[in-house]
Amino acid sequence: MNQRTKGNQFERDTAKEMRELGFEKCITSRYGSRELDDACVDLMHTDPFSLQLKAWKSAPNLHKELKKMPKDNNYNVIFHKRPNQGTVVAMTKQDFYEMIKMLKSNNVI
Length: 109
Hints:
Layout: H1 3-20, E1 27-28, H2 29-32, H3 34-38, E2 43-44, E3 49-55, H4 62-68, E4 75-82, E5 86-90, H5 93-105
């Protein structure tokens, strides 16, 4: 399987997982919106999150990738999958702290 095919499969698999988590309308932006795909957002209908997915052997430059994503009210999140190592999720510290404050103010944590 080539790298492009792996990336596309990672997008489809993650879109399915997001639908299972309650984002019922989640689809890949390759399918739904060229504009979002060009803005480095790989999944649609996941508000308040903009998700970019990377299935790379090497580590992406997370700072560079986050800067390419939209500057709006959504939290920009990057999923990075490495072969035989699983997937990690990255976001800015500011967004992470904002989510913590929101969870605390709603007595979730």
